[in-house]
Amino acid sequence: MNTELMEALDILEKEKDISRETLFEAIETSLVTACRNNYGRAENIRVTIDRETCDYIVYVEKTVVEEVTDKNTEISLEEAKKLDENAELGSVVRIDVNSKEFGRIATQNAKNVILQKIREEERNSVYNKFAGKARDVVTGVVQRINGRNISINLGKADALLSENEQVKGETLRPTERVKVYILEVKNTPRGPRILVSRTHPELVKKLFESEVTEVADGTVEIKSISREPGSRTKIAVYSNNPDVDAVGACVGMNGTRVNSIVDELKGEKIDIVNWDENAAIFIENALSPAKVVSVIVDPDEKTAKVVVPDNQLSLAIGKEGQNARLAARLTGYKIDIKNETQAKDAPGFRMEDYLTDDYDEDGEYEYEEGEYEEGEYEEGEYEEGEYEEGGYEEEVNAEPADSDEIAEPEGEEEKVETE
After folding, report:
1. What is the DSSP string of 59-95?
2. Does the pLDDT of residue 256 top 80, yes or no?
3. Measured between alpha carbons, how far is 197 from 179 in angstroms, rounded to an integer?
4. Which of 128, 159, 370, 374 could make an SS bond with 328 (beta carbons 3.0 to 4.6 A apart)?
5. At 399, phi and psi to the nearest 5?
6. Within 13 A of 248's CA, how many CA atoms are on the CB side?
7. How far apart are alpha carbons 231 and 227 in whole angstroms?
8. Three-state SS at 45
């Protein structure tokens, strides 16, 4: 039994996560290469390794002939009889090769073959491991900062956190542990290249799945997410079990669940609202914490007109339009927000503008569900942006309102905090 080889294989299998069979094949290939370098050819050289004892045999197969013309592949009948009494013309005999007699160059080449195979299998092993974790969240350690990019160590591989995928204003220091979202895993000649993100909306979703049991088992669904990395996130949740409060499950006892996620996101505020199949109700929930007087939706144009109390306009719009922008992205609707005073004279905001057959006997408008786009900042509209690797790009056409109308009401900003 070759105990030294067996111990070496055990260590490599555990540390490099390479199968023993692959290592056996690498050794066999290296020995064949060494024989070729030592004897000039390898077509008739064979190597066998006992998988249990790790004992190996190297031999050359030669054909028995009357007159030898190629000593590397042929052997005379007389010489063959010395090795095998049953040898006869045309038969093949095995001749053992003493691999310990190989020269230094042949031995070095065999070593290089084994090392190369180990490196290739190690890269493949790492790639296969992380390829299965694409679109998932992993914990890594900040290893070094390369200019504007950050290298994150994930254990057996390093990941790249590019500038576009970093949260603006967030400072990561070496040795700090962070959670990152794996965007993509590429297999390159130099090994797997792993791209990660701290800005992707799915990062928030995966954090809730790991923190909230009801989300992980499907009792509570996260229907949609809108996020401005580093500042604020809104998520819409829905409970498949009438006995389970979706928002309460995500918030947790005394806010423990959501607070742990906020801490992981370095203080990013999170608003959790109830999703509803009724478009008007969903938009009203999405504009939380602002109160809403009425919502009129147009499923064909995919727009919504929202009326809020006079003292709630700035809260509904939010600082620099953030609350309205996130609500619009969350619902998908183009939202036009006005206070009650403005709505009295604005076309389309008065109920009498909709006195059609769509009204029931009580004069209540029957809302139809539709898809939504983003909303308006006072008189201007937020056009829904597309998510790119750095976050969302917003195109805002805003007509500045009077300073009195958009000023943040005292005490109201506190209500925008994560519930």
Report:
1. EEEEEEESS-S-TTTEEEHHHHHHH-TT--TT-EEEE
2. yes
3. 9
4. 374
5. -90, 120
6. 6
7. 8
8. strand
What are 285-329's pLDDT values in tens digits? 999 999 999 999 988 888 999 999 999 999 999 999 999 999 999
Residue-wise pLDDT for 65-100, tens only, equals: 888 887 778 888 888 888 888 888 888 888 877 766
CA dist 193 → 95, 188, 358 (Å): 47, 7, 57
Q: Which element (helix H / strand E) includes 145?
A: strand 137-146
Percentage of the chain lying above the pLDDT 70 cut: 80
Q: What is the pLDDT of residue 100?
A: 67
Q: Which fold has domain 276-419?
A: GMP Synthetase; Chain A, domain 3 (3.30.300)
Q: Which CATH class is domain 135-197?
A: mainly beta
| pLDDT, mean of residues 397-404 | 38
Specify the pTM: 0.67
**187 has which bridge partners?**
192
Per the CB < 8 A criterion, the answer to whether 326 and 228 are in contact is yes
The whole-number pLDDT of residue 391 equals 37
Dihedral Cα 197, 202, 208, 211, nearest 10 deg: -40
Interior angle at CA 53, CA 13 and CA 116, nearest 5:
40
All CATH 3.30.300.20 domain ranges in the chain, comma separated = 199-275, 276-419
Write the class of the CATH domain 3-129: alpha beta
User: 79, 67 in Cβ contact below 8 A?
Assistant: no
Going by the DSSP 8-state scheme, the letter that residue 332 receives in this structure is B
User: Can you point out the beta strands (E) in 365-407?
Assistant: 376-377, 380-383, 387-388, 391-392, 395-397
CA 140 to chain centre: 13
Tens of pLDDT, residues 370-393? 433 333 333 333 334 333 333 333
Length of the chain counted residue by residue? 419
Q: Where in the chain is the domain with CATH 3.30.1480.10?
A: 3-129
